From TrEMBL:
Pfam families in UniProt: DUF455 (PF04305)
Protein name: Uncharacterized protein
Region (Disordered): 1-29
InterPro entries: DUF455, Ferritin-like_SF
PANTHER family in the record: 3-OXOACYL-[ACYL-CARRIER-PROTEIN] SYNTHASE-LIKE PROTEIN, SI:CH73-314G15.3
Biased composition (Polar residues): 1-13
Length: 238
């Protein structure tokens, strides 16, 4: 059975420790006005919930459940992504290290897309944020989406595909831990995780080049790396 490295979002509304307010953020007109950015960001919920295959009635029922206030948080299955690889997958990894590394990069880009929209949806209404804050993260989401598409296509060229290998939930674990603190989210996700990714990327590029995979190395070096450098500063001038 193939792995499913994209677990569901577990907290996008209020924290489980926060008392419901008379008018929850999800009911604010801005969130349901199709002309606003906040509305657009919340429309990503079906994708975040792995619900893209649901029928329209089920999509509508889910939307109505949130809007009616009967659901103050969005739950997820007890088991997240299948990151406990069995012996067979470990053997495959040993044979295809480059595929495993590239798959991990694709998975990271997938999380980065969701986290860009999550920070807009989660903190956009709660905080008095300047326009540049939203501009920064829309650009980040656009960049990460392009990175995901390019890397996923390259992974398929190498004979694999996204979801074929085990993956980690580290980025989303940190997002959950910082779900109530914007400054903590910026510090952990962008000043720590993004920076660490930049630190190891030159080594990753060298691995691909040393194994004669010049196409992947050039993609990482000429497209991914320069754009990722700009993401560390996203939302920091607030």
């Amino acid at each position: 059975m193939k792995s499913q490295p994209h677990p569901s979002i577990s907290r996008i509304a209020s924290s489980s420790t926060r008392q419901p307010s008379p008018s929850p953020p999800l009911d604010h007109p801005l969130l349901f006005n199709p002309t606003t950015l906040l509305f657009s960001s919340t429309r990503r919920l079906p994708r975040l919930l792995n619900a893209t295959t649901l029928s329209p009635p089920l999509h509508n029922s889910f939307h109505n459940l949130i809007k009616s206030k009967r659901r103050q948080k969005i739950s997820s299955p007890e088991r997240f992504s299948r990151n406990n690889a069995n012996k067979f997958k470990i053997f495959i990894w040993l044979l295809n290290k480059l595929q495993f590394i590239l798959h991990s990069l694709v998975h990271t880009e997938s999380w980065a897309i969701d986290l860009s929209w999550d920070i807009i949806a989660r903190f956009g209404k709660q905080q008095d944020m300047p326009r540049d804050f939203f501009t920064d993260f829309v650009k980040v989401a656009q960049d990460e989406g392009r990175h995901f598409t390019l890397l996923a296509a390259r992974l398929e060229e190498l004979g694999s595909h996204y979801g074929a290998l085990p993956a980690h939930d580290g980025l989303w674990d940190s997002a959950m831990a910082t779900s109530n603190d914007l400054l903590a989210r910026l510090a952990i996700e962008h000043c720590v995780h993004e920076a660490r990714g930049l630190d190891v990327l030159p080594t990753t590029i060298s691995r691909f080049r040393n194994n004669n995979d010049y196409k992947t190395a050039d993609l990482l070096e000429s497209v991914i790396y320069p754009e990722e450098i700009t993401h560390c500063a996203a939302g920091m001038l607030i």
